[in-house]
């Protein structure tokens, strides 16, 4: 009988376990606490000594928590257990357990002469420490850690396994259950990835068939998550997906992509070997990436693919619209990069390309760049498009229920349906609304025990009014991000367009029809059998959510807007191309003081409507639709509406725009709404430009007021000439 790395060989599994328990008696109690009929040997790999400077004398084990606990907290597979004998647990040891967990597990298994057979979950690891302050330390270090691995400190203070089991559950809930699993700003994969399975199968099949694909979707629709989940799933099928991100690039830095792709590919080859694939990596020279140039990228990819002919490779490029942006000033570098990828893909039957982005103009155009500097586009017509659409109700329910389980939340069918109806099934909004519901429940109900809380339709309804404001802001940001790359599509998502206007616009222009087709693939527009275009339920849900103008009806258009009912009808529409809401003329609502910035916003809003198609400005109403009134503004003018009106039309608008234009184009009236005094202005479109301070030109576009500069300014002035 001999020992190797602290683990005894020649013993049975139970013999190794007993020897380990002799050294770490608390491990025996924890093991007993986890034993169930389906988990009879929780700690199945143990070693008492691993040669590691930062985890010297630590006991290390791999084991299972049992089906019930794993299902409750969405933990799949083996997890790592550390039994630290020191009374002063150090940060460097914590860092190994979080950032170096996979490497340490491999070292431990190899040291025990077993070879790497198990890869512990990166989600959580269990620590039993003799340090009485370890919990406070872990909490502090966890807050500043970028690792996805949570360290759960379990005090084994009793010889009773049941006491330890309860404490383990309590700590799991405190660390996992009390975290908001719905809200995330980062891409997700694995257990946190929901829906899209049919889409993933189709994309994987296309890549396996040697096709090149592009995954298209709005910002925050989950494109990067799809690529990462594709990478995870395809590795099990012998396909190595290497990702690069164009969003981090600046102009003239495209060359750095070669180094990034080569370096990431080398890492992926090593990871694939650790995952059990037979991979030929090459010597150190073949793995070097520091001096890689774009001109060398194609040869590197071809050598790796040819050397591993039994495997398949995918080079995935995220945020492809950034390449289109860079191509405007440096088309040659972008062409060189795309040509390197295409050449490698064409030469190697086991290498494909995947892209993701907001718009697919990169692949529709025969050229890159504009004007005399334009160059041929190597990827023109070389990719097939896949579009990310909203969740259906079943997918929304799966996300709500599975992520809710570790937080001890259960959702009724009615609550799931209400979330689907309110968000249109768009995952970003589904997660954020669910997060708001969770916070409301956590703040108002007793969730300290292990009992499940049932989320009802009433819980959803309670948070909708406040949550809608943030959701509306987020949606507007998404549209503006789309406008940067695809203005025609952004214009078609303007909620101020009536159904007839939307259809007529699409039918009248070929470029707009292309944009409409893309939005149809995204599940936002649909073309009926008769040929007319309309908004889908998903898009209508988002527009209702942000209190925009009703989609298919102009019933409120003829409302008498000089009455309270008429003003309320306008407010219910929310801000749109022809309607803007402002809370104040000159008083900052946060400071309570006069603020020139507030006055400037009013001036720009009026000038913007003059330079667009006219419309109405309602002042005294928050952009959420809440009626605030103008009490503090009126106090400045001694409660005199006449003085206030003269100041608005004369000193504010007349002096800063033009008194003649203002007198011809602006009509003002006062209305009392819900007991509060508000001001309404009707603004007519002007035939000549309405400048602000003789320097700035603004125009209303969608539900925003934008300043025109450069080419857009010249184009506007030419049209008005």
Q: What would you say this structure looks like, in words?
A:
- By secondary structure, the protein is α/β, with parallel strands linked by helices.
- It folds into four domains: 2-177; 197-387, P-loop containing nucleotide triphosphate hydrolases (Rossmann fold, 3-Layer(aba) Sandwich), CATH 3.40.50.300; 393-542, no CATH class; 559-720, 2-Layer Sandwich (Methyltransferase, Cobalt-precorrin-4 Transmethylase, Domain 2).
- It has a five-stranded mixed beta sheet with strand order 3-4-5-6-7, with helices on both faces. It has a five-stranded parallel beta sheet with strand order 9-10-11-8-14, with helices on both faces. Strands 19-20-22-21 form a four-stranded mixed beta sheet, sandwiched between helices.
- Helix 10 (256-274) packs parallel to helix 12 (294-307).
- The model is unreliable at 1-10 and 548-559 (pLDDT under 50).
The major pleated sheet works out as: 5 strands, mixed
Distance between the termini: 97 Å
User: CATH homologous superfamily of the largest domain?
Assistant: P-loop containing nucleotide triphosphate hydrolases
Domain count, please report it: 4
CATH fold-type name of the largest domain: Rossmann fold
Beta fraction: 15-25%
What class would the helix/strand composition place it in? Answer: alpha/beta
Strand order of the largest sheet: 3-4-5-6-7
Mean pLDDT: 85
CATH architecture label name of the largest domain? 3-Layer(aba) Sandwich
Unreliable parts: 1-10, 548-559
Characterize the overall form: globular
> What's the count of strands?
25
């Amino acid at each position: 009988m001999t020992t190797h790395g602290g683990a005894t060989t020649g013993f049975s599994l139970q013999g190794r376990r007993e020897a380990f328990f002799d050294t770490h008696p608390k491990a025996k109690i924890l093991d007993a606490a986890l034993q169930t009929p389906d988990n009879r040997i929780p700690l199945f790999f143990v070693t008492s000594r691993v040669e590691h400077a930062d985890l010297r004398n630590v006991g290390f084990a791999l084991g299972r928590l049992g089906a019930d606990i794993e299902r409750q907290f969405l933990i799949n597979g083996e997890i790592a257990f550390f039994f630290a004998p020191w009374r002063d647990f150090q940060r460097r040891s914590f860092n190994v357990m979080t950032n170096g967990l996979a490497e340490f597990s491999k070292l431990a298994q190899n040291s025990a002469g077993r070879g790497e057979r198990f890869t512990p979950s990166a989600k959580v690891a269990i620590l039993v420490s003799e340090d009485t302050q370890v919990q406070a330390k872990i909490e502090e270090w966890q807050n500043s850690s970028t690792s996805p691995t949570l360290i759960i400190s379990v005090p084994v203070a009793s010889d009773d396994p049941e006491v330890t089991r309860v404490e383990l559950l309590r700590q799991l809930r405190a660390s996992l259950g009390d975290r908001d699993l719905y809200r995330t700003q980062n891409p997700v994969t694995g257990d946190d990835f929901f829906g899209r399975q049919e889409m993933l199968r189709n994309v994987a099949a296309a890549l396996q068939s040697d096709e090149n694909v592009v995954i298209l979707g709005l910002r925050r629709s989950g494109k990067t998550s799809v690529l990462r989940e594709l990478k995870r799933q395809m590795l099990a099928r012998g396909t190595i997906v290497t990702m690069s991100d164009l969003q981090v690039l600046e102009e003239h830095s495209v060359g750095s992509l070669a180094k990034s792709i080569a370096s990431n590919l080398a890492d992926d080859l090593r990871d694939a070997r650790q995952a059990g694939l037979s991979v030929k990596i090459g010597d150190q020279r073949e793995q070097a990436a520091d001096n890689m140039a774009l001109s060398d990228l194609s040869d590197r990819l071809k050598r790796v693919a040819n050397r591993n002919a039994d495997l398949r490779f995918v080079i995935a490029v995220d945020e492809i619209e950034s390449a289109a942006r860079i191509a405007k000033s440096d088309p040659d570098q972008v062409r060189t990069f795309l040509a390197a990828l295409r050449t490698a893909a064409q030469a190697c039957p086991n290498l494909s390309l995947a892209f993701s982005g907001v718009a697919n103009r990169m692949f529709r155009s025969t050229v890159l760049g504009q004007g005399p500097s334009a160059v041929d586009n190597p990827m023109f017509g070389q990719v097939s498009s896949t579009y990310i659409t909203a969740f259906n109700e079943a997918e929304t329910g799966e996300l709500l229920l599975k992520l809710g389980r570790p937080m001890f939340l259960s959702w009724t069918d009615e609550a799931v349906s209400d979330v689907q109806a309110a968000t249109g099934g768009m995952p970003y909004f589904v997660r954020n609304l669910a997060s708001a519901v969770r916070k409301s429940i956590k703040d108002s109900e007793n969730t300290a025990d292990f009992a499940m809380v049932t989320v009802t339709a009433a819980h959803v309804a309670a948070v909708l009014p406040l949550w809608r404001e943030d959701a509306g802001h987020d949606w507007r940001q998404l549209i503006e991000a789309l406008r940067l790359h695809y203005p025609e599509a952004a214009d078609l998502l303007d909620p101020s367009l009536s159904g007839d206007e939307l259809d007529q616009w699409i039918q009248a222009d070929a470029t707009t029809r292309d944009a409409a087709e893309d939005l149809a693939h995204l599940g936002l527009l649909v073309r009926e059998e008769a040929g007319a275009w309309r908004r889908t339920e998903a898009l209508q849900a988002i527009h209702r959510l942000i209190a925009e103008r009703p989609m298919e009806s102009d019933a409120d258009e003829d409302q008498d807007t000089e009455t309270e009912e008429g003003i309320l009808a306008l407010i219910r529409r929310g801000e749109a191309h022809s309607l803007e809401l402002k809370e104040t003329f000159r008083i900052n609502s946060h400071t309570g003081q006069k603020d020139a910035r507030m006055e400037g916003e009013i001036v720009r809003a009026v000038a913007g409507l003059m330079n667009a198609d006219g419309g109405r400005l309602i002042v005294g109403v928050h952009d959420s639709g809440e009626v605030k009134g103008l009490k503090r503004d009126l106090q400045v003018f001694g409660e005199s509406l006449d003085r206030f009106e003269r100041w608005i039309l004369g000193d504010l608008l007349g002096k800063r725009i033009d008194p003649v234009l203002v007198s011809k184009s602006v009509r003002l009236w006062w209305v009392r709404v819900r007991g509060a005094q508000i001001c309404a202005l009707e603004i007519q479109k002007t035939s000549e430009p309405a400048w602000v301070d003789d320097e700035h030109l603004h125009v209303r576009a969608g539900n925003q007021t934008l300043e025109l500069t450069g080419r857009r300014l010249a184009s506007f002035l030419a049209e008005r000439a």
